[in-house]
Amino acid sequence: MIARIVEIAEDGRHLSKDRGFLVVSEGKTELGRVPLDDLAAVIGNAHGLTYSNNLIAALAERCVPFVICGPHHRPVAFLWAADSHHEQSGRISDQAVATKPLKKRMWQQIVRSKIEQQAATLDAVGRRSGGFSLLAHKVRAGDPDNMEAQAARRYWPLLFGPDFRRDRDAGGTNALLNYGYAIARAGVARAIMAAGLHPSLGVAHANRGNAFCLVDDCLEPFRPIVDLMVFDLVEEGVAELDSTAKQALARVLIKDMLTVNGASPVALCMERLAVSLAQCFSGEATKLDLPIRPLPLER
User: Fold this and answer.
1) Hey, CA dihedral for 234, 236, 242, 244, is it positive or negative?
2) Is the CB of residue 220 less than 8 Å from the CB of residue 110?
3) What is the helix, strand, coil percentage profile of the chain, to 5?
4) Cβ neighbours of residue 155 under 8 Å, at least 6 residues apart?
5) Which of 27, 137, 169, 274 is most buried, taking the most CB atoms under 10 A from its CB?
6) Beta-carbon count within 10 A of 126 CB
7) Three-state secondary structure call for residue 259
8) How far apart, in Å, do the first and last CA atoms of the chain sit?
9) DSSP string covering 80-147, please?
10) CA-to-CA distance for 133 and 99, rounded, in angstroms?
11) What are phi and psi of 234, to 5 degrees?
12) Distance of CA 179 to the CA centre of its chain
């Protein structure tokens, strides 16, 4: 069964736990309930939202991230389970002592995968992507030549037109991207925590003010599938982040992506990547389990 994303986007809602259910209510009126074991993430995207401590504890026990969104639907906080895996202590220790050469090799694999996925997105919408495979091939350990940024400079105008600028604080298409990335980021956070890794100890991201550096590292190869979904919405005439767009983007975790193990839902691909990260940190593996081309063409 595919886990569910629950977003609370209307004001005045209260979230609580009743036996094995997440319950959404307004005043004394129950509006709906979802089994806790069916949840992939809960997203708080409304003003005046309240919730019970029992619910928060129940989500943490299940490694279900609770995402708090701020302006422009960007996540500003996550609930992180303090005890999420039976090998958590050992895995975090391996992660903490990982050498720079190891992390640079991991980042090389992640950037290559992201650029290949960008090429697949462009292919899926009929844009030229011939140079992207060459850029991916040129990525060296640690990406010292910043091929990721070079690819991005070519990618956005090809996908959304020459006038498009990626701006996290803007509305319209940018707001759609922000929301889709927030969903995907919650899925990656869940996978990282469930694998017993620490989300703050990144491979390449190292912002001292970012508690989810590793999550943002691992999010990169999954961004292009969000981009593809947003492209389709824009082509359908969606100009702003409305309820229809949110429902569509919330499905990102059940979209299929191709890996060396075959086609799998994005959520499962994220879990496999997180487990392979732990294995690389411990020396059990040298290759990350990353999405490969092509993206699914059914759209």
Assistant:
1) negative
2) yes
3) 50, 15, 35
4) 118, 122, 132
5) 274
6) 7
7) strand
8) 21
9) --SS--TTHHHHHHHHHT--HHHHHHHHHHHHHHHHHHHHHHHHHTT---HHHHHHHHHPPTT-TT-H
10) 28
11) -65, -40
12) 10
CA-based nearest residue to 296, from 263, 272, 270, 273: 263
Extract the tokens encoding 202. Answer: 């990144």
The mean per-residue pLDDT over the stretch 68-78 comes to 70
How many Å apart are CA 39 and CA 79, to the nearest integer?
14
Residue type present at position 205: H
> DSSP state, 208?
T
- Can you name the residues that pair with 108 across neighbouring β-strands? none
Q: Side chain identity at 239, as an amino acid letter?
A: A
φ, ψ at 32 (rounded to 5°): 170, 165
The neighbouring-strand residues paired with 16 are 23
216 touches 148 (CB < 8 A):
no
C-alpha 108/C-alpha 103 separation (Å) is: 9
Place of tokens 């004394």: 28
CB 166 within 8 A of CB 157: no
Q: What is the pLDDT of residues 147-192, one digit of tens each?
A: 999 999 999 999 999 999 999 888 899 999 999 998 899 889 888 8
